[in-house]
């Protein structure tokens, strides 16, 4: 638990997760634009084609999902600098500029406003995500180190804060941008391509291949649920580790889906969240309507509405599922079973690959399936609820029997303490059964 807590509290993993969450509005915007563009209704698609509206849907997609690496280079640096109590906005701005410095560009023709530049968008989206994260780490740490050592230009008191911050950023900005410029020039001059190509080839591509198999997805699921069982936020710990890999896969998936091209991946963050959605909903239903224990009945009726919106904390800490060995097996393993089934149904062509859509937190099960681009995914989510119900049922009955027995024992104890259920005979207390 100590090791897992340290991983979960790691400053760099937290900055990745928080940085990703900061750009969530952009990714959701891209997801909705993609869904509106490819909505499989013949009359709707005819209308789109007739009025040539598809390019207008591509505009938000290009500047959100296909611009993801740029946004992340800002947001991760911002959150990392803020964790050191340093100006996050300036750190993020310098990181984003550094990312563009490392990005290859092409010179165009000389126009009336000067030389034209063209930046290929292949490195601005999913393929440049790891570069964006690494640039954010390096630039933010240098910015923090220089700022904390006081090697900055300080303005006298009375100068407006925005002016003071501008001058205080000059020295770290000059050092960071110069360093990345020298790095980019060195790699280009020596014919090594670009920093993007090096990082993608050495780090991102191998990690994507490693993290895209069903084995790694199941390992993440089991570890996450085991950590939840011990009272730790399993998803915050495990998904923080795989987030760069899976988010990059989702970005590539969504870009291909939007373009009508074959999707490159099966798994990813969207796959994981889609097929683990609704994991506690059947248990909440059983607690609310099938439990003999009054505690479980009350808790189930309270927990059922949140469970519909995939919020399981009331049950995790209320049943509790934490350290509850009667419910440990389904709690830890059921998600893995559903992920395994969904993967091989996708491989077999029965289920389509998820579109990589980033759905908002709390999106109900089945609705999230439709948002991944197919009614078949939603149908699988629906039938998975019955499979989960069967998986929970036996263990639920055991837990309910234990809770019911505890309540009866408590009632008997309270009755004895209050004098109820006893009869006085010859001046002595006798059990109530003796009267019969």
UniProtKB/TrEMBL annotation:
Residues annotated as domain PTS EIIC type-3: 1-395
Transmembrane segments: 21-43, 63-81, 88-105, 125-146, 167-192, 198-220, 227-249, 269-290, 325-345, 377-396
Family matches, as InterPro entries: PTS_EIIC, PTS_EIIC_3, PTS_IIC_cello, PTS_Sugar-EIIC/EIIB
Keywords in alphabetical order: Cell membrane, Membrane, Sugar transport, Transmembrane, Transmembrane helix, Transport
Compartments, record wording: Cell membrane
Segments for region (Disordered): 413-436
Membrane topology term: Multi-pass membrane protein
Repeat found in the keyword field: no
PROSITE patterns (alphabetical): PTS_EIIC_TYPE_3 (PS51105)
Pfam families: PTS_EIIC
Role of this protein: The phosphoenolpyruvate-dependent sugar phosphotransferase system (PTS), a major carbohydrate active -transport system, catalyzes the phosphorylation of incoming sugar substrates concomitant with their translocation across the cell membrane.
Protein name per its UniProtKB record: Permease IIC component
Organism of origin: Photobacterium rosenbergii
């Amino acid at each position: 638990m100590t090791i897992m807590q340290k991983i979960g509290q790691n400053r760099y993993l937290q900055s990745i997760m928080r940085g990703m969450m900061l750009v969530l509005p952009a990714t959701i915007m891209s997801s909705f634009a993609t869904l509106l563009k490819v909505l499989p209704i013949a009359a709707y698609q005819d209308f789109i084609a007739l009025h040539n509206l598809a390019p207008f849907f591509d505009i938000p997609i290009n500047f959100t999902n296909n611009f993801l690496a740029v946004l992340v280079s800002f947001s991760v640096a911002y959150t990392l600098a803020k964790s050191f109590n340093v100006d996050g906005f300036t750190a993020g701005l310098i990181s984003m500029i550094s990312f563009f410095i490392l990005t290859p560009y092409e010179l165009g023709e000389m126009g009336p406003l000067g030389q034209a530049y063209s930046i290929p968008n292949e490195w601005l989206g999913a393929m440049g995500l790891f570069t964006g994260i690494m640039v954010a780490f390096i630039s933010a740490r240098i910015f923090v180190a220089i700022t904390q050592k006081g090697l900055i230009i300080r303005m006298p008191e009375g100068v407006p804060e925005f002016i003071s911050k501008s001058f205080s950023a000059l020295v770290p900005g000059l050092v960071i941008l110069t360093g990345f410029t020298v790095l980019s020039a060195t790699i280009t001059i020596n014919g090594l391509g670009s920093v993007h190509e090096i990082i993608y080839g050495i780090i991102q591509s191998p990690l994507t291949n490693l993290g895209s198999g069903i084995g790694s997805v199941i390992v993440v699921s089991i570890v996450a649920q085991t950590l939840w069982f011990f009272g730790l936020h399993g998803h915050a710990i495990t998904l923080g580790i795989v987030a760069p890999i899976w988010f990059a896969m989702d970005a590539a998936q969504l870009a291909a889906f939007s373009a009508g091209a074959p999707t490159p991946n099966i798994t990813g963050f969207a796959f994981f969240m889609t097929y683990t959605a609704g994991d506690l909903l059947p248990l909440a239903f059983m607690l609310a309507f099938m439990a003999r224990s009054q505690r479980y009945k009350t808790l189930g009726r309270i927990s059922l509405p949140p469970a519909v919106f995939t919020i399981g904390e009331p049950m995790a800490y209320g049943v509790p599922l934490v350290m509850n060995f009667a419910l440990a097996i389904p709690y830890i393993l059921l998600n893995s079973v559903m992920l395994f089934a969904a993967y091989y149904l996708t491989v077999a062509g029965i289920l389509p690959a998820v579109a990589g859509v980033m759905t908002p937190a709390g999106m109900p099960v089945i609705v999230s399936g439709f948002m991944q681009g197919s009614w078949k995914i939603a149908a699988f989510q629906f039938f998975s609820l019955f499979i989960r119900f069967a998986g929970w049922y036996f263990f639920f009955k055991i837990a309910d029997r234990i809770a019911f027995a505890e309540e009866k024992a408590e009632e008997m104890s309270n009755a004895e303490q209050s004098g109820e259920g006893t009869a006085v005979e010859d001046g002595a207390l006798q059990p109530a059964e003796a009267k019969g």
